[in-house]
Design a protein that fits this description.
It is globular, with a radius of gyration of 19 Å. 34% of the residues lie in helices and 22% in strands. It has 191 residues and is of the alpha+beta class. It contains eight helices and eight strands; from the N terminus they run H-E-E-E-E-H-E-H-H-H-E-H-E-E-H-H. The strands form two sheets. It has a six-stranded mixed sheet.
Length: 191
């Protein structure tokens, strides 16, 4: 993982890490996929024949917390295709929906993630408050052999909002983290 890279190490090299750990890097086929980090609550949704059946957060990491009733207020109830499986994603508020939530609750929230967790875990949150949440999908569970691009394509065909993502075939020549940050900021400021 990137956590193993230490800036002070003599062998520090993001390029070497990518070349070692990213399959097919540099051959133009898969490359390195990056996506925006959405800070909220991780969740898994289960669909059967295109209908939302259940939803759970990670809970304590072993046993998830059932949030099906709340997810019915912000996740797609019916997919655009007849599909069965699990979708992983992030529940969050956007800059637009946190303003809506503050108008509803007459409270001020400093952190999107804390406000999201509060709504997910609150027993007294109204349906209107809970419906300000958004679900951004980022993984088709059990999609062995599917590239990240194929997974994002499936998620979009099913009708999910997804995290922003892009493929980098040579991050060291034509793309910087500042470029990605700038593109993420411009999109999320409009949400």
């Amino acid at each position: 993982s990137l956590d193993k890279l230490k800036v002070g190490d003599a062998d520090f090299s993001v390029k070497r890490w990518v070349e070692k750990n990213v399959p097919n890097y540099g051959d133009g086929t898969e490359g390195l996929w990056i996506s925006s980090k959405i800070d909220g609550c991780s969740a898994c949704l289960y669909y059967k024949d295109g209908n939302l059946i259940s939803a759970a957060t990670r809970g304590d990491g072993i046993v998830g917390v059932d949030i099906t009733a709340k997810a019915m207020l912000f996740a797609p109830l019916k997919l655009e295709r007849n599909w069965t499986g699990y979708i992983r994603g992030e529940i969050t508020l956007t800059k637009q929906t946190i303003v809506e939530l503050m108008e509803l609750t007459k409270k001020t929230y400093k952190c999107l993630r804390n406000a999201t967790a509060g709504l997910i875990n609150a027993k007294e949150a109204t349906d209107e408050e809970t419906s300000t949440l958004r679900f951004f999908a980022y993984e088709v569970m059990g999609s062995v052999g599917k590239t990240k691009k194929e997974q994002f394509d499936i998620l979009k065909r099913l009708g999910f909002e997804t995290a922003l993502y892009t493929q980098l075939t040579d991050i060291f020549d034509d793309f910087t983290s500042a470029d990605f940050d700038k593109s993420m900021e411009s999109v999320y400021n409009t949400m």
